[in-house]
Amino acid sequence: MKRLLSLSVALCIMLGYQTEARAERPVTEGAKVGEWTMDFDAAKKLAKEKNLPILMNFTGSDWCGWCKLMDKNVFSTEEWKTYATQNVVTVYIDFPKDKTLVPTKLVERNEVLSKKFKVGGYPTYILLASDGEKQIGQLGASRTATPESFIQDLQKKVDFQKKVAKLPPGPKAEYDKVMTDVEALEKEMQAWLETKPKKNEENNKKFASFKERRKACDKEIADLIEKQK
User: In this structure, are 215 and 133 located in the same domain?
Assistant: First the structure.
């Protein structure tokens, strides 16, 4: 009996990865609310029909440690699945080492999407409006992330966008102007970072200046929304 028990324990250890909590593998065609799909076109169509946001998961599913951690701690849980099936269309953009995990026809498209949304590492979670084009937020991984904390962060961005959509013409024009400034600032900062500036006092001040300018834009937007209450 002890020998059988020992063999069972050993087998569980060797095959532990099979019982490890993980998000379900995505489908490659079609889309359903809250279920991971690689079919971005189907996801956009569904999001528009249901008037729901799209969460794009840029991941390296079979090698990225942070991706696996988020799968285990957030996306494999019943709390996330319950929320997702009612609130968001989920798209899986994978860059695995095992090339059989992604259909050949989607490999180039994934690269295009990665460049379009300026993905610099994995995992990166891009939140889009229901039109499948407008980016309304970005989220990242965290060692302490839980379904509750991730859902809360995501929902804050969705709720904020709903408030923006309700802005009267005047405040909406002001918001659009600030967002244009934000986009210009981000492009300027990205171009500067691509020069690989050395770490010195001058560049530290320049980086701090970028952060302060962005902070000022964020405050201006927050004040604009607050005035509408």
Answer: no
Number of domains forming the structure of the chain: 2
DSSP 95: -
5 falls within a domain: no
Beta strands in the chain (DSSP E): 54-59, 89-94, 124-128, 135-139
Consecutive 10-residue averages of pLDDT for the chain (229 residues)? 39 40 81 97 98 98 97 97 97 97 96 94 96 94 96 96 91 93 91 92 94 93 85
pTM tops 0.70, yes or no: yes
Q: Output the pLDDT for position 23.
A: 63
Closest CA to 50 of 38, 32, 30: 32
Cβ-contact 182, 217 below 8 angstroms: yes
Domain of residue 78: give its range: 19-161
Final residue of a structural domain among 135, 161, 187? 161
56 burial (CB, 10 Å; 0-12 / 13-18 / 19+) is buried
Write down the H helix ranges in 15-138. 16-19, 40-50, 65-70, 78-87, 104-116
Residue 24: what pLDDT? 74
Of the CA atoms within 13 Å of residue 200, those in its CB half-sphere come to 4
Do 203 and 219 sit in the same domain of this protein?
Answer: yes
